[in-house]
Design brief:
67 residues; mainly alpha; 70% helix; elongated
Length: 67
Amino acid sequence: MQALQESNVLKEYIDLVTNQIRWNRARKSVQEEINNHLLDQKEAYLAQGMSEELAEKEAVRQMGQVL
C-alpha cells in the first residue's frame, strides 16, 4: 500500500472528503483508498507527460467536487 504523500493538493482534497465522514474508525481506510486512487491517477498523467503539479490537480479534478 502506498504511503500518504506530502502533496498539499492531494492532502487538502483527502481531508475535505474524509472530514465529512462521521464514523471516525472508517476515516483511515477511506483516506488510504482515496490516496491510492489519486496516486494511481497522478502516475498515469505523469506517464502521459504532464507536470507533477498539473497531474495532481487533474487527478483531484477527476475525483469530483467535494460538497
